[in-house]
Write a structure and sequence with these properties.
Shape: globular
Radius of gyration: 17 Å
Oligomer: single chain
Strand order of the largest sheet: 9-4-11-2-1-12
Number of helices: 5
Low-confidence stretches: 214-219
Helix content: 10-25%
């Protein structure tokens, strides 16, 4: 997983700054949004790991955001199927509010007792996506993903937004509010900056070769 703090001017930044993505998030949250962070999540064939059931707000709450006014745009770069570890969600689980979480290794996972009760009431769904499909989900939505046990990779581009009115109460490793300069949707196709990391502020990994993350043709 590669994480960056600012959208930048490369093609991933154009996606994050586009009216189609950022504008949709503003409509869903009912407020101006800014870029909280972006991620490239890569699950390679036979080796891509699983993520256990959690809410994103379970992570972000500790950065002292007082309200769960945060959203993720999950964009499939490859076909997402059960066999290569597609996203799984519990529909409407964001209505349950923030749940207690605990650390298991390097992952934050939700309370299993409460999770079992939620799964008895709400439906679990596999998010089967084609390249270019997008899923917008609230930071309290319970989700996980399985291990990639197939011969097909599963890459996804994620952009996380916070609302302007929901500033963190303490400094942390992700950026505070910087006005998001939105661009027209046409900027995505017209952008020719594929390896320009200027102003993106790569957080993880510390050493990073942009040529390694240019998506290949899906298997």
């Amino acid at each position: 997983m590669t994480i960056w703090g600012h959208p930048g001017n490369d093609v991933s930044g154009m996606i994050s700054r586009s009216e189609k993505v950022a504008g949709t998030c503003e409509q869903l949250l009912g407020d101006e949004v800014y870029h909280y962070h972006g991620k490239l999540v890569t699950k390679e064939p036979f080796t891509g790991g699983a993520h256990l059931w959690h809410q994103d707000y379970g992570y972000w709450y500790i950065n002292e955001f007082l309200e769960p006014n945060m959203i993720t745009a999950f964009i499939a770069l490859d076909k997402c199927e059960k066999r290569n570890g597609c996203l799984q969600i519990i529909e409407s689980s964001h209505k349950c509010g923030r749940l207690d979480h605990k650390l298991e290794g390097q992952l934050t996972v939700t309370d299993p007792t409460r999770l079992d009760k939620i799964m008895d009431r709400f439906s679990m769904k596999y998010c089967l996506l084609n390249p270019g499909d997008a899923l917008f989900f609230h930071c309290n939505l319970l989700h996980c993903s399985g291990q990639n046990s197939s011969a097909y990779r599963r890459w996804a581009l994620l952009t996380v937004y916070n609302t302007v009115s929901n500033q963190s109460c303490k400094p942390h490793h992700h950026p505070q509010y910087i006005r998001l300069e939105k661009v027209p949707n046409t900027a995505i196709k017209s952008c020719d900056k594929f390896t320009d990391l200027t102003d993106k502020r790569i957080l993880v990994p510390k050493t990073f070769d942009p040529k390694q993350v240019i998506p290949k043709t899906p298997a």
